[in-house]
Specification:
Elements lengths: L7 E8 L5 H10 L6 E6 L20 E3 L11 H14 L8 E5 L6 H10 L1 H6 E11 L3 H7 L1 H8 L3 E5 L6 H14 L4 E4 L4 H16 L22 E7 L5 H14 L4 E8 L8 E6 L2 E2 L3 E2 L10 E7 L3 H13 L4
Parallel strand pairs: 1-4, 1-5, 2-3, 2-4, 5-6, 6-7
Antiparallel strand pairs: 8-13, 9-10, 9-13, 10-11, 10-12
């Protein structure tokens, strides 16, 4: 891309662990208005799950920024990834794209990311941060905002906030959450969505507008650019295995692990190859709540191995993964 070309818009999608970022981005990528979007997925840990679920034909393959966090000031992965996307777009090695969507890890503080867009001259010439979209869990959001400084920062820096899973919470709780978010981010547009496809489609309309043009904003004004968290407090454990196990065995082992570490695991997610199923199974848990497992239509790549990732504030993820492997490995 020449220096004279208009900077491409970047949408930053953030939100605490399990708020629904990947679900929203998947629906955005299926929307014709977002055709031709490049996607950068940031995950904490060595194995990425989310980018496998966001492969779309006709768009550049999702690029994973693994085992780190783009919000770390000393981590230049985001800048390098944007440079790599620009280079490969110009040499034709990936399909052309009209915008970039960045999905941050759930424990990312957006402030250093916004600072990078302001301070990096090359990024300023080639990209412009169009909007920060923050997902907030309608069931767990209020408590998460009070107990997790990253979640509060994600809300405070948002241009638009989408309260997800509203159909799982009562109306009064959603109203209280809206009030809390309004106080935290008085400048942000706050939208509410349940799980219904039609409702989410309607709520995507403002995001379509945000994604179709660059909206230069002074994201630095009124924002604190310090780090709101210490990544040493967040640990991840991952396991990849090739053996095919029965779903009841896997489900029982996961239930035992979550029960034994109740209140200490922040997130569990996985993509599993299960006996007696010809399609991959997605598992997803937020804190102590497991979402119903779902079948994908197809494997997103040629990799048919099962993979599980656990995230915790302390070493619970490592302990839990060790227990899970101890239970399942002898069955391989």
């Amino acid at each position: 891309m020449s220096d004279e070309a208009a900077p491409l818009p970047v949408l930053l999608v953030t939100g605490f662990l399990g708020a629904g970022k990947t679900t929203l981005i998947g629906r955005m990528l299926d929307d014709p208005a977002f055709a031709g979007s490049a996607l950068l997925v940031n995950e904490v840990g060595e194995i990425g799950i989310d980018q496998e679920l966001l492969v779309r034909s006709g768009s550049p393959p999702p690029q994973l920024l693994a085992n780190g966090c783009v919000c770390c000031v000393m981590n230049d992965d985001l800048g390098l990834a944007l440079r790599d996307l620009d280079l490969r777009r110009r040499d034709g090695s990936i399909p052309p794209f009209a915008r970039v969507i960045v999905e941050t890890t759930g424990v990312a503080d957006p402030a250093p990311i916004l600072a990078r867009f302001i301070a990096d001259g090359w990024i300023q010439r080639h990209f412009v941060l169009s909007a920060v979209i923050t997902l907030v869990d309608g069931v767990l959001g209020a408590e998460t905002l009070r107990s997790q400084p990253e979640a509060a920062s994600q809300a405070a820096h948002a241009d638009a906030i989408l309260i997800s899973k509203a159909d799982l919470a009562d109306v009064d709780a959603i109203d209280r959450l809206r009030g809390l978010l309004s106080a935290t981010a008085p400048h942000a547009t706050i939208l509410v969505a349940g799980s219904e496809e039609a409702a989410v489609g309607r709520l995507l309309e403002p995001f379509r507008l945000l994604g179709l043009r660059a909206l230069p904003q002074d994201h630095g004004r009124g924002h604190h650019h310090g780090h709101a968290h210490d990544h040493a407090l967040v640990t991840t454990a991952s396991w990849r295995f090739d053996d095919v196990l029965p779903w009841p065995v896997i489900a029982g082992a996961l239930d035992d692990v979550v029960t034994a570490h109740r209140g200490r695991l922040m997130r569990i997610k996985g993509l599993l190859r299960v006996r007696d199923a010809d399609r991959p199974v997605v598992i997803d848990a937020v804190q102590d709540l497991f979402h119903p497992p779902r079948l994908l239509d197809r494997w997103p790549s040629d990799d048919r191995s099962s993979r599980i990732v656990m995230i915790s504030r302390d070493t619970s993820s490592e302990d839990a993964m060790r227990a899970l492997r101890h239970t399942l490995a002898p069955m391989n």
